Amino acid sequence: MSSADIYREVVLDYYRNPRNFGKLEHFDISSHDTNPLCGDEVDIQIKVGNGKTIEEIMFSGRGCAISQASASMLTELAKGKELEWVKQLSKQDILGMLGNPELGPSRIKCALLGMKALKTGVYGYLGATYDGQDGTEGSR
Amino acid sequence: MLKTEPIDLEAIRRDFPILKREVNGKRLVYLDNAATTQKPRQVIEALVDYYSRYNSNVHRSVHRLGEEATEAYEGAREKAARFVGASPKGLVFTRGTTESTNLVRFSWGEKFVKKGDTLVTTLMEHHSNIVPWQLLAKRKEANLRFVSLTPEGTLDIASLEEVLRDSPALVAVTHCSNVLGTINDVAKVCSMARKVGAATVVDGAQAVPHFPVDFAAIGCDFYAFSGHKMLGPTGIGALVSRKELLEEIDPFHGGGEMIKEVFLDHSTWNDVPYKFEAGTVNIADAIGLGAAVDYLTHVGMDKVREHEMALLRYTLESLTGVKGFKHYGPREPENKGGVLSFNLGDVHPHDLATILDEEGIAIRSGHHCAQPLMRWLDVSATSRASFHVYNGQDDVDALKAGLEKAGRIFRL
Q1: Which domain holds residue A47?
Q2: Which single residue of B163, B319, B326, B371 has CA 20 to 30 Å from B312?
């Protein structure tokens, strides 16, 4: 796997033309996370439908192509899903979405930043605490 | 134009075992020297020699090994002091620049800073020359003010004059920016600060490794530097001051070795610099730093500087044509240390570092522990290539090819 594979055309497209980028006027969930290592930032906002589905979702932030493309793709994937679905979401899902790039431990954190923000927000809304036990935390 | 004979690059490279290493099947091109430099075998051997031949505590043991270790440790202090134009009695070994500035914060700051005082630092500082003063200002209810920069990334002298009208208690400034490479005229800054009665602290972390430094000529009160950025080991550095000033300020850490006599209700302090070296000191790494000083002295700091200036000139000429290349800071090698910060189009520095790593090229990407400066530059991060004496034009050529590859991948 080379960097040309990591930065596939689709990843660059999401980096430069992020889908669902911006802020929601009305939202029920708002979550912010940063990667202090490189300063990547992601904000996620969600409008919840019927108390259980992700009716609308937007993200904003700045950082590397991997963190921003990953967060953008994740919003597309999450839209319309049930909040419970977020609990099943795994590191492998995110890496799969990005085309399974071979990333070092520090860059994996970039890829997972959006998922971490999403999980933190949704778990909080559901009255649970996200403990990061699915690969978004831990060794870097 | 070289004033001295050029260095023997191939001979120097043979002294650095790590340069034989390959990364991702490519020759290691190490351009992250502002973060930490590689170590010559002479430094590595000094560490091995200490641990395998005369490992012992210093100052207190009267047996043979203790005598040898003390002689080597104090010899290293003499070498390091001479290297920066200071007196050995005025050189305190610390863990590095950060511990040195924090020593000033506690030992000088607790004693002399009063409520309502002004402390001054600049927008181009590393966090190690900002955060200690923030903490001190908060504790003492003092004000912290920042000297701003010119568009070229040099200190704005008008802004300095303005903050000096507050008659600050302290002026802290870097000798050489770890991001922009700007070399500040610290002798002039210290002279201006002294006229209004301010104490002065100079961060020499990016200066001492790269060009000749003369503490006495600068005329500052405190000068800090790190060993690991000048071919020495990690965990060792120094705070340089005048003996009389070190006598006047309070101890930093309390414990063994820093005392003369201990009673139940009070203690008296050891002579300087030992008053500031509590506990068992970092003997091995101090000796390693001494070996690094020997190495740099043998090469000649004038030659190190000439070599890096020539390399900077070559790099700026070579990279300016690369599509999307944007450089930050002064462009004239005469005013710039061997540090080059840049961005490439909209490629985030971390993405760039990942692509370069694949080519065996190590650069730094991020905020470089200088977030106020990043905000001033209006960027979230930069890429940074930084040199030392073992870097050559072939490293710059590799960097250029790497940047062009990144440009292709990102379709700039």
Answers
A1: 3-125
A2: B371
